[in-house]
Amino acid sequence: MEHIQFIDLTATTALVLFLVGFVGGMVSGFIGSGGAFVLTPAMMSLGVPGVVAVASNMAHKFPKALVGAYKRNKYGQVDIKLGVIMGIFAEAGVLFGKQVMVGIREAFGVAGTDLYVSFVIVVVLGIVGGFVLRDGLGERRGEGAQQELKELSPVVRWVRSLHIPGTMVYFRSMDAKVSLLVLAPLGFATGLLAGTIAVGGFIGVPAMMYILGLPALKASATELVIAFVMGVGGSFFYALDGFVDIRLSMIILAGSLFGIQIGTIGTTYVKDYLVKLVMATIMLLVLVSRFFYIPDYLSELGTIESLPEATVRTLDGIGEGALAFALVFGAVMILQALYKGMREQRLAEAAAAASAAPAVPTVPEPAPTVVAAGPQLSPLGHLERFLVASDGSEFSAAAVREAIGMAKECGAELRVMSLLATGVDYAVLGDPILMQEMELAQAHLDEVKGQAAGGDRAGPAGTATGDP
Amino acid sequence: MSAPSSPARRSPRALIVTLALGAASAALYLLLYLSSDMLPELSATARRGETLYALVPLVVAMVFCVVHGAFTGQFCAFLGLRAKKK
User: Fold this and answer.
1) What is the pTM of this model?
2) Taking a C-beta distance cutoff of 8 angstroms, is the pair A122, A14 a contact?
3) For the segment A31-67, what is each residue's pLDDT rounded down to a tens digit?
4) Lowest mean pLDDT among A42-46, A130-134, A215-219
């Protein structure tokens, strides 16, 4: 059996891996997937054997999935029971996928696994990228995003109507019982794909949406539980055979965790169709990139005539170029969207602040002789106090502006409040984080107090904390 | 709650937290660098049937993710990178 060799880790390789992780993370945060469909081919292009790339990717992904699942569970988006059950079946898929990989490696060597992984990447990215591109172009033409089904599709109705004694389990997210015999093949297929190219979500999420009838948000959140369960098991199984190069995993993680933050923030500044178009373009470019490596693998396996060295170099060069272009394209699109969006947001906030300014008189006006006798907004009574809540956004800035104006008009007292959500997270993160948030909120309230200090009675400004 | 836009985000306290988490993360990566020759050996040991060594990558991944994840989140917040307010 051919011995698996980990690559030599030079400073240049480490830097490239960090950058690949950074861009892969950005892409993954931006499009909401694990990003392994970029990272696995990128690692292979650096000379990492396919099986090591898949195993190392899986090891860097499962902790991220755990953190993501924990966060989204707070919003009630995760069906833990469904995720764990599907994850256990997925585990079997990962194990099977790993055995296939080991079998191919024993029979055909590293070139065999490289060819297998590349072939699956080309097919899967071709199908998924095509669908995403079609969706994105449709939305751009104004055909609207695919609506979540108000009525259950015939497939979902059929799945939920199945009653196989002894196998039925109730799931809160669907408010229905589903047979374990339905979940088994779905979970298995998810794990099989994850064990082959380190991306399981391409099967898991659509399966939960279109076969089980879960809303998209719950499906993608529950997928994180599946990714964690199968990621832990998959990494362990691969590690048993010594395929996990944890050095590569951690360098990629270093860049990826920076990238994810930027990508996730970037999505809040762009339209949905742009996210889909960027996703589709990257997928198809990665597909093209991998396609150019296939002749070399076939040549190494003796399936086709041996290729001249110059041809191999040219094909590899084109493949590397296409991959580099995909990564640079993704990075530029995301950073541009983030920069443009943040600049527009700053301008909008500045405009909101500027339009609030006239409400605070800069030149002292003739003071009313009796403050409480000022004009009133209500014919039914005298308004003495106003309460306004503000979170610092431009929308609440408009509310604050109006409240200041109304309080001035009535000679009334104005109270401003801000609310901080607290709970388990803050217990985990510790008091300093909460204190920091409270300082920020208090600073904002002081700003409002300053705005109002133009002759009216600015009342107390305070923050409140609470577990939502 | 959406964080109010304020220079207070770059308070000395935020700087200290960012630097502390950054130092912890850097220390872990220094440790990784110093162990970079030993880690492939551990993989080889697991391959030879020492099952417990297969747990090393899982533990390493978890610890790095928690520490480095906390640092990157704090770092981006310190730089003022934030989601759009809806």
Assistant:
1) 0.68
2) no
3) 666 678 888 888 888 888 888 998 998 888 888 888 7
4) A215-219
Q: State how far residue A291 is from chain B, nearest Cα, in angstroms.
A: 30
Coil, helix or strand at residue A234: helix
Classify residue B81 as left (phi > 0), alpha (psi -120 to 50) or beta.
beta
3-state helix, strand, coil in chain A (%, to 5): 70, 5, 25
Segment A335-350 shows an average pLDDT of 83
Chain A residues in contact with B82 by the CB 8 A cut-off are 265
Task: Map tokens 């909101």 to a residue.
Answer: A352
Domain positions in chain B are: 7-79
Mean pLDDT, chain A, integer: 80
Amino acid at A121: I
- Determine the distance from the C-alpha atom of residue A12 to the mean position of all C-alpha atoms in its chain, rounded to a whole number: 29
CB atoms under 10 Å from CB of A115, counted, come to 21
Nearest to A253 among B2, B68, B81 (CB): B68
A443 - beta bridge partners? none
The pairing of beta strand A413-421 with beta strand A385-389: parallel
Token pair recorded at residue A271: 């339209």
- Residue B60, min C-alpha distance to chain A (Å): 8
